[in-house]
Amino acid sequence: MNFLKKIFKAKKSKLNFDDNQRHEQHPNLLNESAEKAKHEIELTEEKRIQLIEELAKNGLENDSKLYEEFDPLLKDAARLIVQTRVASTSLIQRRMKIGYNRAGQLMDQLEKIGVVGANIGFKAREVLIKSEDELENFIQNELKSSKNNIQSFYNKYQEEIERKRNEYLEQKLLQEIQKEKNIIKQELLDKERKRNLQREAYKELVDEGLILNQPVDKEWNREPIPQDIMDKVWNRDGGCCVKCGSKENLEFDHIIPFSKGGANTYRNLQILCKKCNIEKSNKIG
C-alpha cells in the first residue's frame, strides 16, 4: 500500500536532510545515525495501528498488495536516464520501445525512488544520480528498504499482528458459514413455497372436477393410520394375509394406493404379508 512507503520514507527523508548538513564535520556520526535509523522506525500510534491492521489482513510474504511492485524495466530506464543525463518520458518510450503510458509510469517510479526530480512546469526534470555505480547501489538499497523495515516492524509486533490475523480469519469463517446458512434457508423457503403452490393447484383442479386422484409427491406428509381403523381391519381380515393366508410379516396395505389418492379408511385398507405387498406394488386391488 502507498501509505506503507510514506510511513517509512518520512523517517529516511529527515535523515537525508540532516546528513547533508553534518556530512563533512561528522562522517562517523552520520554512519552511526543511518545504521540506527534502519532499526528504529518512529511511528505515531495511529500509523502503528494502521500498519498492524494491514499486515494482519494481507500477510507479510504472500500478498503482493502489501508492497507496491516496481516495473521490471525500472533499472533499465534508470540506467538510460543516468547515462544520457536526460530525464525524458519520450526518451524512455523511444529508446525502450514501449507505450507512452508505461514510460510515464516508469518516470513516476524513478521520481518516487529519487533517481529524477519532480516535474515542475515546463522545466526539465533533474537527474539526481551522478554515476552508474551510484545508481546501482541506490536502486538496490531503495527497492529493499521498505520490505526490510516492514519485516522489522512485523518481528517487533508479531504477537499482536497474529492475534489480529486470527480474529480476521475467525470473522471470515463466521461470515462464510452465515452465507451458506442463508443460501440453505432460501432453498428451504423456495421448496416450501413450491409445495404450497402444488397443494393449491391440486385443490383447484379437484374443485374444477378435472382430476380425481391425489398426485404423487413423496414430500407430502402421509397421515398415520388411526389405531381404531387398524384394529377393525385386523379383526375383519382375521389377522392374516388376505392373498395367501400367511400370518408372518404382516402389513397394512391401501387397496387404492396412497399415491393414487387412496385414504386411510376402513374400506380402503387390507392386511397383506410383506411378499404379497411387494408383488402388489402400487397397483389397485
Structure report:
- The protein is mostly helical and 285 residues long.
- It contains 10 helices and 2 strands; from the N terminus they run αααααααααββα.
- It has helices spanning 2-22, 27-39, 45-58, 74-84, 89-96, 100-113, 132-156, 158-207, 227-236, 274-280, and strands spanning 250-254, 269-273.
- It has a two-stranded antiparallel ribbon with strand order 1-2.
- α1 runs antiparallel to α2 (27-39), α3 (45-58) crosses α8 (158-207) and α5 crosses α6 (100-113).
- The longest helix has 50 residues, at 158-207.
- The radius of gyration is 41 Å and the shape is rod-shaped.
- It starts with a helix and ends in a 5-residue tail after the last helix.
What spatial form do the alpha-carbon principal axes imply? rod-shaped
Which percent range describes the beta-strand content? Answer: under 5%
Average of per-residue pLDDT values:
77
Largest sheet: 2 strands, antiparallel
Q: Tally the helices.
A: 10
The total count of strands amounts to 2
**SSE sequence, one letter per element:** HHHHHHHHHEEH
Q: What would you say about this model in short?
A:
The protein is mainly α and 285 residues long. It contains ten helices and two strands; from the N terminus they run αααααααααββα.
Topology:
Blueprint: H1 2-22, H2 27-39, H3 45-58, H4 74-84, H5 89-96, H6 100-113, H7 132-156, H8 158-207, H9 227-236, E1 250-254, E2 269-273, H10 274-280
Antiparallel strand pairs: 1-2
Helix pairs in contact: 1-2, 3-8, 4-7, 5-6
